[in-house]
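Usage example:
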Amino acid sequence: MRRMDVNRRSSPGQPDRTEPPGPPDARRRRSATPAEQRRRVVTWAQQNGVLFALLAMCAYFASQSDRFLTRGNINIILLQVAVTGIIAVPAAMLILAGYVDLSVGSVMVLSAIAFGQVIEGGGSELVAVIVALAVGATWGLTSGFFISYLGFSPIVVTLGGLAAARGIAQVWSEAITVSGFSDTFGELGIGRWFDTPIPIFLTGGVFLLGFYAWNQSTTGRHLAAIGSDEVAARAVGIRTKRMPMIVYGLSGLAAAIGGLIVTSQLDGASMSIGQGEELTVLTAVLLGGVSFKGGRGSLMGVLSGLLFLGALRNGLILLGVGTFWQQVAIGAALFFAAALDVLYQRLERLALEKAVDDDESTDLTGVTDDD
Amino acid sequence: MAAGAAGVLALAACGDDEKSSSTSPSTPGTTPGTTPGDTTAPTQAPATTAAAAGGTIGFAWTDTAIEVYKPLISGAKEEAAARGYKLLESNNGGDVTKQLADVSTWVGQGVTGVTILPLDPAATTNIAEEATKAGVIVVGYSDKIEGADGSTTFDHVQGGTALGEHASAWINSNLGGSAKIGLLVIDEMQVGRERIDSAMAVIEEMTTSEVVARVKAVSAAEALPAVQSMLQADPDMNVVICVADDGCTGAAQAYKAAGIEPDGIYIAGFDGALGALNSVKEGGYVKADAALDLKEIGRSVVYVIDNIKNGVEPKDKLHPYVIVDATSGQVLDDLIASFD
Amino acid sequence: MTTEQVSASPLLRVDNVKKRFGSTRALSGVSFELQRGEVLGIIGDNGAGKSTLVNIIAGVHRPDEGTIAVDGVEQQLGSPREAQLAGIETVFQYLSLIPTLSITDNIFLNRELFGPGRLLKAARRVDRAGMRHMVEDAYERLGLLLPAPDTKVVALSGGQRQAVAIARAVIWERKVVVLDEPTAALGVRQTEIVLSFIRRLKEHGVSVIVITHNMEHVLAVSDRIVVLRLGRKVADVQALGTSGRDLVEKMTGATHVTIEGREPS
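Running the assembly step on the lines above writes:
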């Protein structure tokens, strides 16, 4: 048995990995035990279950309507989930960390109204955009401060924000829709590149950044750590107060971007913007397998959930389904998402119980008690 | 979505020159209990702290963020000032529970009367009973309330019919008598059904059109994605009737984004919201609007109660819709001006 | 295992450490040394000051007086991170493992490897494959039969989690590994697993401090034992040749002790 050099510097660095590999038989590649195989299947299903549901549903709609899979219709589906998608990325990160932002729809409209009011007051569109983004980001950071640093309940603060932000927007705008913006601004919501609506590119960009942060950088796992066990996360030095606050700021910023996009699409800063948006965002995130408890989930799942919602709404209209059933279907999707969450938690608990049983009969170190 | 949905139907109905409302005897400062000769007038509520000198009126509408509320409440405030009433508003965001809670509070405070837009008929009827028992005058807004003392409503069937006629004329002149129609609806409200069904009845009779899509949408933000999807279902859809004309703005934007020219498209709606009126005036996708004289309706919110209190008519005011299009001239301008 | 060390300076030297909380004196001048490659057991009853001592060594608290030196160099352990950088890795009773993360992720939490390659390292891109390989290497080196490194900790039993926590300490090749009540929450079978793991660490030349209130366990793994009572060190003896009764006497201050039902051995 090789003696470890305890005088090495304080990080497991390259030396370990540049050591010549041992003789082939010393590098045992353990094959997965049945328990591990079970666990891998569960994780895989967790991440990809909605994707399959999405594909199945699309296949069904395509079979019922030859319009469903046309380039134009796919563009429409993507366009309609674009704003939700932009907001869903920071929303998912918040939920991963065990927090939630219920005020996003109201921050959308507040930012939109801010934009409109700056224009009304004679400001340029560029200034108006900057103000709108600042309003959203500031609202988010402020909520985040109260929640993360002062310990207020996320639901209470953001629910209050939902009412307050919309209320402020209403008073500020006096319920009049400022409209008639420049064609340049209209490009944001209506413009196209390569025959694809611009908001889709924005959403794509946000998701790419999100994927990098979630999977390739330390952000995703640190947020998951906070959501899973905040005390333990703090014990290893993760900044458990600063990170959620920043993500709340991003959530507000994303809501502002969304509000501007819809304003551009409507060519008007309408008070109806963002109504109920938080529910749609939550549905997409939960459908995507991000557990509401926190600590677990994948952004790929959120993307699948998002597309699922978009395709569902669109397909129902294409098929001429009655308005009542349209609403029922959306509600059912949310219920389905909640049920999935419970299912995964059950499976995880079962895996744990099995592991304990396994452990009773396994010696960790491969040696018997006569050492 | 409930708030936005219920919100839109601010339908006000008058547009004519009927002056009876403003010439009815105003009775500011009348002490409670003196309403000679009117056996139907309810006994006055016991005077409590909240009652103003001439009385107080509560107006329970829906989401006050809706644009049409502005001229509505402006008319109500004017009329209340003229008649010496204090006016209370309900900031309920379209939530029926909050709305009725506000009404209950007002009844408890001893207001003279309340005008309520019944977001939920059954629940509103209950509250109306309580109010009547407490001697508070109850007036139904937009829809009648069972057991109420009066109403200020809009003739949805008349409005729908008139709009249907206008649409049919346009379809016959511009589309050869046959159109593909999309409907933006809110079927759970009676108002919504009456408007759309009466319009469609006329269109079906006078043209050979078909309905290609029917989606629930009330606000501009809801209408935009709805019409986008409807256009996918049938790109030849060339007529859209919106149960609430805030949706017309969204519908128009959907067509614009799809790169379809306005000339062959007919979008119309109900309510008389500023955005739609402006769109009609500019000419473009939105070709007509079944508008209500919101300010006048706002006035009726107050004067119907005052009428009931004093035992004069009308106690049930029916406001008609007036159809405006790009050629409507002064009428259209006046309606737009009422939003200032 | 040999207990005679020939190095001149001890690996860890705690000198006259004092700490009070308000009016309570938790530690009233405790001193001891840890030699290289030694397993030192620290035992004491509740209130003896064990937790405070651990927290000070781990950098959670700062002593009012006294010094701590690692490898002859005096250290200011102002935070857990500083203690780590000074070469001390502490495994607390509360394991600080994140249940929904994998074994690998837990071991590298907030100390992630970046790369591979300079560009990705600069971009702070997490080197998941690299981290997994290191854990697999550690499995081999330490002869561990834990589940695969990508297994989520939530699926591990108590004994396995303790082993992961200890492995995390070891993999970072700190000079001193401090284990705070490693067997407290475990059943008999799992306790034995952990104790044999600790013995195995010694074979790898890791210097360990084990804090516990359990006499049997401390006698089973330690080379030397320090007894604390009421904030002071009352004994510093070789494990070999010490009996449970001796320990109990020192822990409680009594000179004659009978354990219910049997003589302490």
